[in-house]
From TrEMBL:
GO terms for biological process: lactate metabolic process; tricarboxylic acid cycle. It comes from Zeaxanthinibacter enoshimensis. Catalyzes the reversible oxidation of malate to oxaloacetate. The active site is at H175 (proton acceptor). This is Malate dehydrogenase. Keywords: NAD, Oxidoreductase, Tricarboxylic acid cycle. The gene is mdh. Residues 1-142 form the Lactate/malate dehydrogenase N-terminal domain. GO terms for molecular function: L-lactate dehydrogenase (NAD+) activity; L-malate dehydrogenase (NAD+) activity. NCBIfam families: MalateDH_bact (TIGR01763), PRK06223.1 (NF004863). Belongs to the LDH/MDH superfamily. MDH type 3 family.
Amino acid sequence: MKVTIVGAGAVGASCAEYIAIKDFASEVVLLDIKEGFAEGKAMDLMQTASLNGFDTKITGVTNDYSKTAGSDIAVITSGIPRKPGMTREELIGINAGIVQSVASSLLEHSPDVTLIVVSNPMDTMTYLVHKTTDIPKNKIIGMGGALDSARFKYRLAQALEAPISDVDGMVIGGHSDTGMVPLTRHATRNSVKVSEFLSEDRLNQVAEDTKVGGATLTKLLGTSAWYAPGAAVSALVQAIACDQKKMFPCSAFLEGEYGLNDICIGVPVLLGKNGIEKIVEIELDEAEKAKMKESAEGVSKVNELLQF
Ligand SMILES: NC(=O)C1=CN([C@@H]2O[C@H](COP(=O)(O)OP(=O)(O)OC[C@H]3O[C@@H](n4cnc5c(N)ncnc54)[C@H](O)[C@@H]3O)[C@@H](O)[C@H]2O)C=CC1
Ligand SMILES: O=C([O-])CC(=O)C(=O)O
């Protein structure tokens, strides 16, 4: 199993590290445009192999796509991250050009690749890859909801004063400060709805804190987060590489599901060796449907800014 990660920056390197530590891939290629950068990150990571006990071979290359040939899975993390006070959508001007050219270079050398898009604004970047390549829709996956759901569970566990492993929950919708739809009504602690333990006000606070999870970290760190994003990407890569059929909310191209068309947005999917093997349509109540519709309108507005 060969995995390429384009962009050896904070998220790309974190993702490579988690993939290596889980030791399910034979090879990880890190590619970056900055001379020597991916080579350096790969060497540093390889020097953790004997300490962390993995055999995954990590190599780094400067913009040489021939070294990515035959990749089964590729992750696109290349592009700029936001700074405090910015929205993800403000990154579109620079990142759209980068994502489009990276996707096309990857495809030249790995025509059967499954692509995971991370660069922001992620739902729009995923849509861009759909519109500008002939990769089948099941093989283009946007990572956002897996991260947002992990943050939701963190916030729920805090509110419940419970261990995170007791908690389950999911965030669907667009990966943006306003567009996320944390499914508070469906969240549980050991199969019991969290609404049995938390007031409506407290649950609303959990949802709001979840939605601005990325912005909160960007303010604290001066740039956007990388540990949880890297871990979330590695979980998606593992689900595909190991054919796990695990359910994650991912940005998927919709053709009628959830009443939406011609859009990539976060919905629950089953991930296995064929990428998105199924889009899972769960029952939403009227309030959740309205939030999903509003979120989709926001994503579509950003998509309209694309030029291709
Ligand atoms: N979807 C999600 O949930 C998340 C998305 N992100 C996004 O991921 C992206 C990367 O974030 P970070 O790793 O923190 O940024 P970073 O600045 O640390 O790394 C980005 C890397 O991309 C490289 N790069 C730029 N243009 C390139 C090109 N044409 N080809 C190859 N490499 C190129 C840069 O040299 C840099 O090393 C950002 O757009 C950020 O907003 C970050 C966290 C979560
Ligand atoms: O907040 C950002 O810009 C990066 C990101 O998507 C996240 O951490 O959720």
